[in-house]
C-alpha cells in the first residue's frame, strides 16, 4: 500500500494469487465493499440528477440536487470508503504476515 493510485487495483498475477490464496475471505469482503461503494456513489449521483430535472428549463439553481449529492457523499459514501480502505489495509497485512 506504499504506492500511489487505487490500492485495490493491483492486477499483477502474483498479487492476485496472494490475495485469493492467503486471505480468501478478506479478499471477498474487500471486493464486495468496493462494488458496494461504486454502486452507492452511482445511486447518489442518479438521485441528485433526478432531483435537478425540474430545474433544467429555468434559471433557478437546483439546491435540492446539491443537498442530496453532498449529504449522500458525506454521510453514505465517505463512511463506506473509509470501511473499504480499512478492509484493504487489514487484508494486505494478513497477506504480508502469511508470506513471512
Explain this structure to me?
- This protein is an all-alpha fold.
- It has one domain (15-99).
- The protein contains three helices and no strands.
- The protein has helices spanning 13-22, 24-52, 63-99.
- Helix 1 packs across helix 2 (24-52) and helix 2 packs antiparallel against helix 3 (63-99).
- The two termini are 17 Å apart.
Condensed summary:
The chain has helices spanning 13-22, 24-52, 63-99. It is mainly α and 100 residues long.
Tell me the number of strands.
0
Question: Mind summarizing the main beta sheet?
Answer: none
**Total number of domains:** 1
The secondary structure category is mainly alpha
Q: What's the Cα radius of gyration?
A: 18 Å
Q: Please work out how many helical segments DSSP would assign.
A: 3
What is the string of helix and strand elements?
HHH
Helix content: over 70%
Shape: rod-shaped
Distance between the termini: 17 Å
Query: Low-confidence spans: pLDDT under 50, at least 5 residues?
Result: none
Keywords:
100 residues, mainly alpha, 0% strand, rod-shaped
In terms of topology, how is this protein built?
Elements: H1 13-22, H2 24-52, H3 63-99
Helix pairs in contact: 1-2, 2-3
Amino acid at each position: 500500500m506504499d504506492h500511489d493510485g487505487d490500492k485495490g487495483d493491483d492486477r499483477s498475477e502474483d498479487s492476485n494469487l496472494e490475495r485469493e490464496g492467503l486471505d480468501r475471505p478478506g479478499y471477498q469482503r474487500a471486493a464486495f465493499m468496493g462494488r458496494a461503494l461504486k454502486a452507492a456513489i452511482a445511486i447518489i449521483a442518479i438521485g441528485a440528477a433526478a432531483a435537478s430535472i425540474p430545474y433544467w428549463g429555468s434559471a433557478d439553481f437546483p439546491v435540492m440536487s446539491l443537498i442530496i449529492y453532498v449529504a449522500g457523499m458525506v454521510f453514505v459514501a465517505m463512511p463506506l470508503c473509509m470501511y473499504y480502505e480499512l478492509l484493504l489495509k487489514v487484508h494486505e497485512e494478513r497477506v504480508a504476515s502469511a508470506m513471512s
